Hints:
By secondary structure, the protein is mainly alpha-helical. It contains 17 helices and two strands.
Amino acid sequence: MSSNPVSSNSDSDSGANQPLSTDELLPPVEPPNAGFILQLFIVPGLIVLVVFLGVLVIGWARSATADPVEKIQALRVGNQSRWQQAFELAQMMLGNGEQSAEIKNNSELAKEVGVLLEEEFEARRDDDNSISLRYYLCRILGEFHVDDGLDVLMRVAREDGERDVRREAINAIAVLAHSLRSLDPPQLGIQPELIDTLVQLANDQDELIRSQTAYAIGVVVGQQDADPQLITELERLADDLFVDARYNAAIALARRGNLHAVEGVSEMFDAEAVAFSIAKEKTPALQAFKRNTMLRNAIEATRLLLKQNPELDLSELTDTVQRFVETASTWTEPAPLPEALVQQAKDLLASGTN
C-alpha cells in the first residue's frame, strides 16, 4: 500500500501512542505492491499517521543508517518507546533500495520479529504502547519476502484482542502473499492453515474484519487457479450486509471475471450507495478521496468483467456506467467529480472490452 485521515469506525479511544485504525480505501483493482497499506480502499476510513507526525521525520532520518539487527535488539528492551523502534524498522523496509532488499530477504531477521510478535501476543497487554508495538510488528512481517512470519500473523489475525492489530495482521498476510507470488520462482504455497484462517476471518462477526479479509482473499487467490473454498467465500462476501465487504469482494471477483461481481460493481456507480459508504469519513476531503477511489476501481472492475466475458450480455452493467456518465455533473458532494475520472468511464463505454 504503497500503506493504511482517522477512522470513524474504530472503537478505540487510545492515546497518542496508539496507531490509528487501518481504515482506508477499497483495495485497488491491481495487486498490491510493497507499499500498498496506504492505498487500501474499503475499510471504512483512511489510515492516517497523524499521531506520528512528531516522530515521522526523525524516524526516516534514523532509518537511513540504522542497523536492523540493532532495531530488533532495541525492541526487546522493555521501555515505552519500543513501538517507535518498530515503526522505524517498518519504514526501513518500505523502500526499494539495497538495504531494504537485504532486510526483506533475511529469514533469520523475520524469525526474530515473528518470535517477538508471538511473545507480545502471548503477553496479552492492552496498553497503548503494547498495542502499537504489535501493530507495527505485523506490518514489518508483511514486508518480508520470506514466509517465516506467516504462522504468527495468522494467529494474531484470528485471536488478538485488538481490532486494529487483527486488521493489520490481515493486511500483512495480503502483502506477504503478493510478494511471495511475485518472486521468481513464486514461493507462495497455499497451505491448508492459511485457507482455514481466511475462511474463519471471512465469517467473523466484526464487519471490518470481514471487509479486510475480502481484500486479502482477493490478493491470495490472484487471477490464477485458486482454492474453491476461497472463491466461495468471496462470492458469499459479495452479498455481505456490510457495504465495504461487498465492494472488496466484488472487486476481487471482477479480477477473475466472476459474474458474482456484477451486482456489487454496479452498486459502486450508484450515488446513494456511494454516499452511504463514505458517510463515516470525518472530513469532506476524505469522503471525496474514498468516493473517487471507489469509482476508479469500479471502472476498472467493469473493464475486466467485459474483457473476460465477451460472449455474455452485460448490458445491465454498462447501462449503469452510462447512467453514471450522464449524471456525473450532479455528483457535487462532497466535491465535484474529477473530469479525468468521468472521462475514464466514457472511454470504457467507447472502447467496449479494450
